[in-house]
Amino acid sequence: MNAPLRQSERLGRLATVLGPDTLALLRFDGTDHLNEVFEYRVEALATRDDLDFDALIGTHATVEIETRDGPQPFDGIVTQARWAGVGENGHRYDLTLRPWFWLASRRRNQRIFHDKTVIQILQDLLADYAQLGDPAVEFQLSQDYPVLEYTVQYRESDLDFARRQMERHGISFHFRHAMGSHTLVLTDDVLAHETVGLRPFKRYDGHHQYEQEHFWDWVPERNLTTGAIRLTDYNFKKPEQAMEVDRLGDAAHAQGQIESFDYPGDYLTQDLGRIVAGLRTSQERGADRRNRAVGDCASLRAGKRVTLSGDRVPGTGETYLCLSASHHFVTEAYGSGGQGSDGYAFTGSYALMPDTAPMVPPQRTQVPVVHGPQTAMVVGEGEIDCDEYGRILVRFHWDISGAHSMRCRVSQNWAGGGWGGIVIPRIGMEVVVEFLEGNPDKPLVTGNVFNGKNGVPYELPKHKTRSTFRTNTHQGKGFNELRFEDQKGEEEIFMHAQKDMNLEILNDRAKEVGRNQAEVVGNDKSIQVVGDHDELVSGNMSIAVGQNPLSDLLRSKSKLLFDKLGTALGKMKIPDPFNFTKGNFQLFVEKNRSEIVGIGSSEIVGAAKSIMVGHTFQTSVGKSHSLIVRGRADTDIGKIHNIRVGDQLTIKVGEHSMITMSKEGDVVIQGKHIRLKADKISQN
């Protein structure tokens, strides 16, 4: 059991970091698929039962199969190792080899990529694994790929995210093997794949005598696939833009034009949509023709091309791309006494497609779906950061890298062509984000929520009956607010403008106040009425011009004067101007008052009118002045009363008495009876 193991003369060998011949190959089974990670299972023999698994796991191990055309390496990372028991010739171990790319399935992540092509995204993603091979990845891409505004890896492994992006853009991958390493190769053209050259088909009855890699079983097949693709999508920046695209396949068989329609098509313009439709049509066409083969072609792996030669079968002379390969190798048991092999023991089975058919990977990787809304924090520059569509930037709680989203549209309560409602969430707010079709690449802000930092405008639950819409002054302190109070008995609508308030009404405005109305204007007030102005006051109306203390002083002085005239006012039945009941109007002017009327002015007083002038009273009439008193007229002058007439003064009482004085000096006294009564009469 402790005899040394030697692999040098055997057809199958195993190399690991544990050293030469520490583990000797017994059996090798493996599968590799185009656009899938391979898995190789190795059964090995060792003389010890205490191998250092810690030193083995995560390192490269290479199975080397000696073929008629030279050695063929199958390299992988040891992802599992176990002791499988002890046998007659030593301790058995089972190893599982997978590509370094499989390690990307062990790491889940959530990250955001801005304005990058799919190639740049893959380069960033795979850079962390580059040390596992030299080179670990090789890009053999010939197509042009658009810059993607926003791409999210969401709750998925690096492997699933990478495969999803490659499937989305029509990029295939396979692996190229060498001793101690393997390379991930990315292609987008079937002709970029390496060829192993000619491999003949030899019928089963004589294949074992053939000294070259060959096939001994060959089965062509056809599959019915979708024959037509129709897609559409929507671009909010150009909502009326035509987006529908379709593409027909070239299948000639019956039912070859079955159409598949899908939305959303995952494109922004119709031109890009045609490319997407072409890729999906190619995916269907590529699944149309298959060939199944069995042989001993150890050099043929998934991702390599081969040309069929040999005995005539359908497809002879054509070149095929290997889509999958299953490998099986068993070596001669150690200790059997032989020279290391009893003959060639490698077999393989293969799935191939003509290299004239399109090579586009099918979309198998599940696209992550965001189930339900999330919240995020608004970020950006300054206090408010938006673009011409009102879109904002947010940072999701799961984004540990501190990146931000794409510009997210914000749902509004109404949105029309230049009309509707709009509120831009501000930096630091917590917003509710939903995702169109659950797609993490398509966020939409649908609401806002308060949190422990951003508290409510009014204390709750104290003011639970209060509904409000309060803004916050940009780059300053203050707010505008519209508030509603619904507590019974305290119902109120409150409006606050931090600076200006403008109200524009193009037609009519009606206002009805059930009880009292108060209005305070801190500075000036002006009213312009183009048409008529009517005011109806059922009670009293008072106007005071000037500051209230001065108005009160003026009123007190005026009242003293009116008190002195009280008797005369009473005789004339003029009401007390300071003890009005209802239906009266009072005007108090602190200093001056002027009134200018362009043409005519009339005033009608139904009962009595009084005019009180504190100092001087003057009336100037440009032409005529008439005073008509139907009853009695009294004039009370305290000191001097002067009457000056330019041409003639006439005083007439009744029909018979008259005094006339002219500017020429004539004085005529006319009456039925003239009496002169005085203590003394003097004559010049």
Automatic annotation (TrEMBL):
The entry's keywords: Secreted
Lineage: Bacteria, Pseudomonadati, Pseudomonadota, Alphaproteobacteria, Rhodobacterales
Pfam families: Gp5_trimer_C, Phage_base_V, Phage_GPD
Source organism of this protein record: Paracoccus halophilus
One GO cellular component, as annotated: extracellular region
InterPro entries reported for this sequence: Gp5/Vgr_OB, Gp5_Vgr_C, T6SS_RhsGE_Vgr_subset, T6SS_Vgr_RhsGE, T6SS_VgrG/RHS, Vgr_OB-fold_dom_sf
Gp5/Type VI secretion system Vgr C-terminal trimerisation domain mapped to chain residues: 467-549
NCBIfam families to which the protein is assigned, alphabetical: vgr_GE, VI_Rhs_Vgr
Family per similarity comment: Belongs to the VgrG protein family.
SUPFAM superfamilies: gp5 N-terminal domain-like (SSF69255), Phage fibre proteins (SSF69349), Phage tail proteins (SSF69279)
Name this polypeptide is given: Type IV secretion protein Rhs
Domain Gp5/Type VI secretion system Vgr protein OB-fold intervals: 385-450
Principal location listed in the UniProt entry: secreted
Localization annotation: Secreted
